[in-house]
Write a structure and sequence with these properties.
- By secondary structure, this protein is mainly α.
- It has one domain.
- It is built from eight helices and no strands.
- Helix 2 packs across helix 7 and helix 3 crosses helix 6.
- The protein is globular and about 55 Å long.
- The N and C termini lie far apart (40 Å).
- It is found in: Cell membrane.
- It holds the Pfam family LysE.
Length: 193
């Protein structure tokens, strides 16, 4: 039971800590509400859990054999984060991402697949909590992580919705979106260095 508790604690701390996915979730929760942010949260959760499972099955060996692959994924992820940061920063008093008015499933899915934080969390988690010869430990870890990730990321949508009580005018929303966009851009630039 202690091992499962350790898995859950790791999953919660990695899912709820600030990062690009959670910045976008917070912003979307404020601008669009919890219900309209759920597809983004679901995409991020499924994307991360799929990445975790793939790494558990051996994708980490590919990145070890091809070290430039991880750096390339990092640059692609940072570029995607910069794109999302631009859309948030210049969205005015609402969040707009291309033809959609809110971040959706695909953005969440892609962002976590390309997120260097997600790769690092997956590599560290698989190394710490799974046994290479025992796939049941990988299934257990991924199952726990799926539920905890959905709740952890989703809590940022709830926080964004609660912030709506404090941020009620269009100018306040513009300032909030600008701050969140700049914060996301700073994360992306940090990852590129």
């Amino acid at each position: 039971m202690t091992f499962i508790l350790a898995m859950c604690t790791y999953a919660l701390t990695m899912s709820i800590s600030p990062g690009p996915v959670n910045i976008i979730t917070l912003t979307s929760g404020l601008n669009h509400g919890i219900g309209k942010t759920v597809p983004f949260v679901a995409g991020a959760t499924i994307g991360f859990t799929g990445l975790l499972f793939a790494i558990g099955l051996g994708a980490n060996e590919l990145t070890a054999r091809f070290p430039d692959a991880m750096q390339t994924i990092g640059y692609i992820g940072a570029a995607f984060m910069l794109y999302m940061a631009y859309k948030i920063t210049f969205s005015g008093d609402t969040l707009s991402l291309g033809s959609e008015t809110k971040p959706g499933f695909l953005q969440g899915f892609l962002l976590n697949i390309l997120n260097p934080k997600a790769w690092i969390a997956s590599l560290a988690g698989v190394t710490a909590f799974t046994v290479k010869e025992d796939i049941s430990s990988l299934f257990l870890f991924c199952g726990l992580y799926f539920v905890i990730c959905f709740v952890g990321v989703g809590s940022w949508a709830v926080a964004g919705r609660q912030a709506k009580a404090l941020i009620q005018t269009e100018s306040h929303i513009r300032v909030f979106n600008t701050i969140m966009g700049v914060a996301l851009a700073a994360v992306a630039l940090y990852l590129m260095i």
